Amino acid sequence: MIIQDQDINNVIEPTSVSYWPLQPGWYILIAIVIIVLILVAWNRYKKWLKNAYKRDAIKTINSLPNDANFFFQLNSIIKAVAIESYGRNSVASLTGKEWTSFLAKPENCRDLNSKVLKSLESQQYQKHDSPIDDLIITATKFESINWIKKHK
User: Whole-model pTM above 0.85?
Assistant: First the structure.
């Protein structure tokens, strides 16, 4: 038997499935995702507020003039950041080699260059009749800002 075109019925397609209204499980999943996003945003905001002292210190370091008081002012800023982070009892009394060895401890930060540490230790107590080398100041600013950003 030969099948002709008029003997074949067209394929009837089912109606398209609507995604709306959603089933209750989807509403629960959407609510959970929204709650998680709100919690993540809240935690990031709290961390941002908590690190305001770091942003202020970096801004102050960038605005320091390259004059004879540079190392004294820089050391004061770094010490204020360390006091905020580690507590007054463990940081405030440190001076000289104790202070620079505290800054260089691996658990505090491993990025400070020994040349910068030596500058922080010695330069702030020396009298500067001649201008300080801008290269040393720039490197010290950079390293100090890195310490502020990365210390634990």
Answer: no
Q: Closest Cα to residue 85, out of 59, 118, 124, 52?
A: 52
Tokens describing residue 31: 């609510």
Closest Cα partner for 135 from 63, 60, 70, 77? 70
Tokens of 104: 């260089």
Instruction: Supply angle C-alpha 81, 86, 88, rounded to 5.
Output: 85
- 121 C-beta neighbours (distance < 10 Å), count: 19
From residue 78, alpha-carbon distances to 39, 40, 64 in Å are 32, 30, 13
Q: Give the ranges where 63-129 is alpha helix by DSSP (H).
A: 70-86, 88-91, 96-104, 114-122
Tens of pLDDT, residues 12-38: 888 888 888 888 999 999 999 999 999
